[in-house]
C-alpha cells in the first residue's frame, strides 16, 4: 500500500480488499467490553480540520483512540483559503512536534495531495475530505457496508463487489463522496450509475468509469444499492434546479420508489440526511436504510486505514508495509 | 556612441550577414562589412531578430514591488530578448490616470533596459463601471494607445461599446480579457475531464468564446479596433477566424504557455500551473499553434505574471494565478512553432516583434533589420539546449512552469537603440 491515502483512485483492488478485511477484524474490537488495541501506542495522530465536520472528526478520533494513538485535534476553520501559507505553516508546526500521521479535512480540492507531495512534512497523510475532490475513507466505509449487506460478513472476506449494481443519486457535481465511490466501486468490480439532474453532473463525467442517467425510476429496479447524496439547499438559489419540491419529485426516494427496488437492495446515505427532500422519513427509518450502520462502519474502516498506513505488524500479519523514501 | 559590428548573423534566420550598428541606428547590413572602429560581436551563425515586443506584461510597480518592479521586469525582458514591453494596468494604484502611466513610462526610460509602454485601464479602478480618462492617458507623456482591464473582463456590453468607440478618436485599441464573469465564478482550471476528476471549479471555454463573439460584433458595429488578450481555446480561434474573414478589425494574442502546456499538468495540484485563462486541452494547444501559424492569431504575448513564492507555495485554491514568461517566451516559441515547422524565424519576428509593435503603435520597435532603422535587436543561439533554472532569472519572481524542463534556444545579446542591454547572456 502507499504511504498516504489521498484518493480512492490510488487504491488497487487488493489494497481495497485488504482494508475491508482488516476493518472486519477491527469491527470485532468494537464488540468487546474494552474497545481498545495497543497497536498505535506511542504514535501521534493529528486531526487537522480546516472545514467543519464533527461527524468525520469524531469518527477518526474514535478510531485513533481505539488503536491507542495519541490524538491532537486541530481546528483551523476558515483560515486557509484566504491566507494560503497557513496550510504549509500549520503542517510544519505539526511536523516539528513529531506527528506520525495527519488526518486532513480541507475545503480546497487537492490540499491533502499538496500536503503529501510538496515536501512540507514527512508524516503520513490521510484525506478526510478535500473540497469537491475525494473522501476515500467514506467510500471505503460505504463499500464495507455494501459488502456486508450484499455479500455477507464472513462470506465477504477476501471478496470484492463484482457484478453488484450501485446507483448514486443527487449532487454529483459538488460531491467528493460521489467521486470517491465511483473510483473505489469500479476498482472493486461494481457497476455504478449516477443519477442527477444534468445541472448537477460535472462536464467531463464521460471519462468516469460509470453510467449517467437523469431518470431515477428507470434505474431503481436494476440497483443492488441506492446511495443518496446530500443536496445543499443553497444549490437551489444557484439555479441548479427549480425548486426543492421539483427535485424531490424527480430525485427524492420515497416508499413508492423504494418498492421498485429489488427486495435485497439497500438504501445508503452518507449523512446528514435532509428528510423530506432527498429521502422520506419512511425510507430513512426502514430496515433497508444503512445510514446508521455506515457511521459504525466508519470507525472500523478508519481504524483499518490508520493501522495499515502506520504499520502495526500484527495482527493483520499478511500485510507488509512498503516504505517510500 | 560607438560602432558595433555583428558578424555572421542569420538575419531573420536567413543566410549569415554582417550588421553594423552606428549609434542608435543600423548603419549597414551586408557581407564582409569592415570592422574598423567597431566593437565586433561574432554571431557565429546565431539568429538575429528585431528586438521583441511584448504587448502583455505585468510589471507590478506601483504597488506590488515584492513581485516585480519596472527595473527587475525590464531586466527580465532584456534577458528574454525584448526591447519593448507593454505594462498592464492592474497595479496599485491602478493605471487609470495620466499620473500613474507617466510614472511607469518614466521608470522604464530611466532604467534603460527596455522601453516600457504603459497600458491604461479601460475603467476606473478596473471596476467595469465608468470609463477611465482614456484621452488624458493618451495625451500624457506615456502616450497610451492600448487600454485594458486585464485580469478582469469588461463584461458590461455598453461600457465595452463606449470604450471601443471612444478610443477611435486617437487610434487606440481596447485589449479585452475575455472572461464571462458569471460563467467563471469559483473557476480554478479548465472545465473538462480533468476538472471533473480533480474536483476543481471549471472555467469553461464558452466563457471566453462568448465574450469574444460579442466583442467582435461590437467592434464591427461601431467600426473599431479590438484586441483579444491571451486567447486560449480552439473555439475562440474559430470566432476570430470568422471575424477576420468578415473584415472586422480584430487582433489576437496567444501566450507561450498556452502553446505548450495542457490541463493535464494540473493533476499535480501544483499552483505553478494555475493561470488565467487556464491551461486547456491538447486539442486547444494544437489549434492555437495552427492559428498562430496561419495568422488568425496575430502575436505571441507573454502575460508575464510574477508572484512571490508564498503566493504559489500553498494549496491550489489559495494560490495566485499567473506565470512569469519574459525569459522563456522565445524558447517556448522555438520549440512549439519553429521546431515543429509551423513558423520560420521571419514568422517569429513578425509574431513577436513587428505585429505587436504595430498593434500597440510602439514607435521605433518592430522594424525590419535594415539600414536606417533603430538598432533594436536580439541575437539568439538557436542551437542551445538546456534545462530552465529559475534561480538565474532576472525577474524578481520565480513562478515558472518550466523549471527543470529542457527548452531550446537562448538569447545571448539584446540591443536597445544601439546600446547593449544583454551581452553573452549577462545583463549589461
UniProtKB/TrEMBL annotation, chain A:
Q: Which GO terms describe its cellular component?
A: cytosol
Q: What is its EC number?
A: 2.1.3.2
Tell me the route in metabolism or biology where this protein functions: Pyrimidine metabolism; UMP biosynthesis via de novo pathway; (S)-dihydroorotate from bicarbonate: step 2/3
Checking Gene3D superfamilies in the record gives: Aspartate/ornithine carbamoyltransferase (3.40.50.1370)
Q: Which InterPro entries match?
A: Asp/Orn_carbamoyltranf_P-bd, Asp/Orn_carbamoylTrfase, Asp/Orn_carbamoylTrfase_sf, Asp_carbamoyltransf, Asp_carbamoyltransf_Asp/Orn-bd
Record-level GO BP terms: 'de novo' pyrimidine nucleobase biosynthetic process; 'de novo' UMP biosynthetic process; amino acid metabolic process
- Please name the top-level EC class of this enzyme: transferase
Q: Specify which residues bind L-aspartate according to the UniProt entry for this protein.
A: 83, 176, 230
The keyword Transferase is annotated on this UniProt entry: yes
Query: Taking every annotated instance into account, which residue ranges of this chain make up the domain Aspartate/ornithine carbamoyltransferase Asp/Orn-binding?
Result: 163-309
Q: Which residues bind carbamoyl phosphate?
A: 55-56, 105, 135, 138, 271-272
Q: Reaction(s) catalyzed by this protein?
A: carbamoyl phosphate + L-aspartate = N-carbamoyl-L-aspartate + phosphate + H(+)
- Residue intervals of the Aspartate/ornithine carbamoyltransferase carbamoyl-P binding domain: 3-147
Write out the entry's keywords from A to Z: Pyrimidine biosynthesis, Transferase
Q: Which family does it belong to?
A: Belongs to the aspartate/ornithine carbamoyltransferase superfamily. ATCase family.
Entry's HAMAP family? Asp_carb_tr (MF_00001)
This chain belongs to the protein called Aspartate carbamoyltransferase
Q: Which organism is it from?
A: Streptomyces liliiviolaceus
Q: Encoded by which gene? A: pyrB
UniProtKB/TrEMBL annotation, chain B:
Where along the chain is the active site annotated? 303
- GO terms assigned for molecular function: allantoinase activity; dihydroorotase activity; zinc ion binding
Going by the UniProt record, its keywords in alphabetical order are: Hydrolase, Metal-binding, Pyrimidine biosynthesis, Zinc
Q: Which InterPro entries match?
A: DHOase, DHOase/Allantoinase_Hydrolase, DHOase_cat, Dihydroorotase_CS, Metal-dep_hydrolase_composite, Metal_Hydrolase
User: Is Hydrolase a UniProt keyword of this protein?
Assistant: yes
List, in alphabetical order, the GO biological process terms annotated in this UniProt record. 'de novo' UMP biosynthetic process; purine nucleobase catabolic process
Which residues does the record give as Zn(2+) 2 binding sites?
Answer: 150, 177, 230
Q: Which part of the chain is the Dihydroorotase catalytic domain?
A: 45-233
Q: How is the cofactor bound?
A: Binds 2 Zn(2+) ions per subunit.
Which positions in this protein are listed as binding substrate?
58-60, 90, 276, 307
Q: Which reactions is this enzyme annotated as catalysing? A: (S)-dihydroorotate + H2O = N-carbamoyl-L-aspartate + H(+)
Q: Which EC number(s) are documented for this chain?
A: 3.5.2.3
Metabolic or biological pathway? Pyrimidine metabolism; UMP biosynthesis via de novo pathway; (S)-dihydroorotate from bicarbonate: step 3/3
What cofactor is needed? Zn(2+)
The UniProt family comment states:
Belongs to the metallo-dependent hydrolases superfamily. DHOase family. Class I DHOase subfamily.
- Briefly, what is this protein's role? Catalyzes the reversible cyclization of carbamoyl aspartate to dihydroorotate.
What is the name listed in the Swiss-Prot or TrEMBL entry for this protein?
Dihydroorotase
Give the organism, scientific name: Streptomyces liliiviolaceus
Amino acid at each position: 500500500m502507499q504511504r498516504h491515502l489521498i484518493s480512492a483512485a490510488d487504491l488497487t483492488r487488493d489494497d481495497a480488499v485488504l482494508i475491508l478485511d482488516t476493518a472486519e477484524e477491527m469491527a470485532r474490537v468494537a464488540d468487546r467490553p474494552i474497545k481498545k488495541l495497543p497497536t498505535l501506542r506511542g504514535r501521534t495522530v493529528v486531526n487537522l480540520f480546516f472545514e467543519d465536520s464533527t461527524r468525520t472528526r469524531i469518527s477518526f478520533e474514535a478510531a485513533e483512540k481505539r488503536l491507542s494513538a495519541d490524538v491532537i485535534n486541530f481546528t483551523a476553520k476558515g483560515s486557509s483559503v484566504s491566507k494560503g501559507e497557513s496550510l504549509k505553516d500549520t503542517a510544519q508546526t505539526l511536523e516539528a512536534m513529531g506527528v506520525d500521521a495527519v488526518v486532513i479535512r480541507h475545503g480546497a480540492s487537492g490540499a491533502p495531495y499538496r500536503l503529501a507531495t510538496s515536501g512540507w512534512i514527512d508524516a503520513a497523510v490521510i484525506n478526510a475530505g478535500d473540497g469537491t475532490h475525494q473522501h476515500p475513507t467514506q467510500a471505503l466505509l460505504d463499500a464495507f457496508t455494501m459488502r456486508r449487506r450484499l455479500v455477507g460478513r464472513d462470506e465477504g472476506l477476501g471478496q470484492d463487489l463484482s457484478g453488484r449494481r450501485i446507483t448514486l443519486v443527487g449532487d454529483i457535481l459538488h460531491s467528493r463522496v460521489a467521486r470517491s465511490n465511483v473510483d473505489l466501486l469500479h476498482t472493486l468490480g461494481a457497476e455504478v450509475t449516477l443519477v442527477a439532474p444534468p445541472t448537477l453532473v460535472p462536464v467531463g463525467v464521460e471519462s468516469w468509469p460509470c453510467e449517467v442517467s437523469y431518470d431515477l425510476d428507470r434505474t431503481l429496479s436494476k440497483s443492488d444499492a441506492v446511495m443518496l447524496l446530500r443536496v445543499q439547499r443553497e444549490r437551489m438559489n444557484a439555479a441548479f434546479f427549480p425548486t426543492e419540491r421539483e427535485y424531490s419529485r424527480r430525485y427524492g426516494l420515497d416508499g413508492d420508489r423504494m418498492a421498485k427496488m429489488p427486495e435485497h437492495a439497500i438504501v445508503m446515505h452518507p449523512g446528514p440526511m435532509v428528510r423530506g427532500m432527498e429521502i422520506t422519513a419512511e425510507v430513512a427509518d426502514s430496515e433497508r436504510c444503512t445510514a446508521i450502520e455506515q457511521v459504525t462502519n466508519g470507525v472500523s474502516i478508519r481504524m483499518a486505514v490508520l493501522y495499515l498506513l502506520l504499520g502495526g505488524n500484527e495482527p493483520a500479519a499478511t500485510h507488509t508495509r512498503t516504505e517510500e523514501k | 556612441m560607438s560602432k558595433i559590428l555583428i558578424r555572421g548573423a542569420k538575419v531573420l534566420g536567413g543566410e549569415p550577414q554582417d550588421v553594423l550598428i552606428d549609434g542608435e541606428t543600423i548603419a549597414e547590413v551586408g557581407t564582409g562589412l569592415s570592422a574598423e572602429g567597431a566593437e565586433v560581436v561574432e554571431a557565429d551563425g546565431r539568429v538575429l531578430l528585431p528586438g521583441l515586443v511584448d504587448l502583455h506584461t505585468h510589471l507590478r510597480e506601483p504597488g506590488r514591488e515584492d513581485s516585480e518592479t519596472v527595473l527587475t521586469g525590464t531586466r527580465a525582458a532584456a534577458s528574454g530578448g525584448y526591447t519593448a514591453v507593454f505594462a498592464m494596468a492592474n497595479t496599485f494604484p491602478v493605471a487609470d490616470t495620466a499620473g500613474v502611466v507617466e510614472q511607469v513610462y518614466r521608470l522604464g526610460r530611466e532604467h534603460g533596459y527596455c522601453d516600457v509602454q504603459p497600458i491604461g485601464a479601460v475603467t476606473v479602478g478596473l471596476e467595469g463601471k465608468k470609463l477611465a480618462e482614456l484621452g488624458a492617458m493618451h495625451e500624457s507623456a506615456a502616450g497610451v494607445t492600448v487600454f485594458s482591464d486585464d485580469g478582469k473582463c469588461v463584461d458590461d456590453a455598453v461600457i465595452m461599446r463606449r470604450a471601443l468607440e471612444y478610443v477611435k478618436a486617437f487610434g487606440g485599441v481596447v485589449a479585452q480579457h475575455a472572461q464571462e464573469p458569471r460563467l467563471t465564478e469559483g473557476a480554478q482550471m479548465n472545465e473538462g475531464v480533468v476538472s471533473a476528476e480533480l474536483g476543481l471549479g471549471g472555467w469553461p471555454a464558452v466563457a471566453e468564446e462568448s465574450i469574444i463573439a460579442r466583442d467582435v460584433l461590437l467592434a464591427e458595429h461601431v467600426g473599431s479596433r479590438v484586441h483579444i488578450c491571451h486567447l486560449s481555446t480552439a473555439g475562440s480561434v474559430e470566432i476570430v477566424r470568422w471575424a477576420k474573414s468578415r473584415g472586422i478589425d480584430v487582433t489576437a494574442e496567444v501566450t507561450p504557455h498556452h502553446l505548450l502546456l495542457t490541463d493535464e499538468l494540473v493533476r499535480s495540484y501544483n499552483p505553478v500551473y494555475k493561470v488565467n485563462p487556464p491551461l486547456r486541452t491538447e486539442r486547444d494547444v494544437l489549434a492555437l499553434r495552427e492559428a498562430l501559424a496561419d495568422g488568425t492569431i496575430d502575436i505571441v504575448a507573454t502575460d508575464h505574471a510574477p508572484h512571490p513564492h508564498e503566493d504559489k507555495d500553498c494549496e491550489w485554491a489559495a494560490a495566485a494565478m499567473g506565470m512569469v514568461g519574459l525569459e522563456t517566451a522565445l524558447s517556448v516559441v522555438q520549440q512549439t512553432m519553429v521546431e515543429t515547422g509551423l513558423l520560420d524565424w521571419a514568422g517569429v519576428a513578425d509574431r513577436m516583434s513587428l505585429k505587436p509593435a504595430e498593434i500597440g503603435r510602439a514607435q521605433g520597435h518592430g522594424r525590419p533589420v535594415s539600414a536606417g532603422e533603430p538598432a533594436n535587436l536580439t541575437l539568439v543561439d538557436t542551437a542551445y539546449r538546456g534545462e530552465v533554472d529559475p534561480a538565474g532569472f532576472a525577474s524578481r519572481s520565480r513562478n515558472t512552469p518550466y523549471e527543470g524542463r529542457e527548452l531550446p534556444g537562448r538569447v545571448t545579446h539584446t540591443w536597445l537603440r544601439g546600446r547593449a542591454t544583454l551581452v553573452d547572456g549577462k545583463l549589461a
